[in-house]
Amino acid sequence: MVYSLMKLSHVLAIVLWIGGMAFVHFFLRPATMQLEPPERIRLLHAALRRFLNTMVPAVVVVLASGMGMMHWAFSASRSVGFDFPMPMDWSIMTALGLLMMLVFIHVRFVLFRQLSRSVNDGNWPDGANALGAIRRWVVFNLAMGVVIIGVAILIT
To answer: 10: which of 30, 65, 71, 130 fits an S-S bond (Cβ 3.0–4.6 Å)?
Structure first.
């Protein structure tokens, strides 16, 4: 039951993270293109602030639940006298997931702060540059998330 709850929280947090990135990139951002740059940048800043602040606990849940599931599997194997070689798909998911978390940290704590400064200063060209950098990293993370899902489905 504990393992199932960890897996549920892990999957739900990932759905929120990947789904949120897909929504912002494929739906919200294109819809804002009809707005003038100051309004577009302000709207995306407000939406990203809410999304990124929600993602901080979600990313913590992904990390904690992933580590918890690995620990549970290792402990269960050891308790019955078996070694626990880490499955290849778990190794790939862990490595790419940690990379995604590092990208998230960069987006949330470096690029988003640049965007916030630009919005507060009314510096729309710098705000557009910060949004462009955020978009590139979001596309990268979205691709990594799709790869991880593929690994989870196809290699397991």
So the answer is: 65
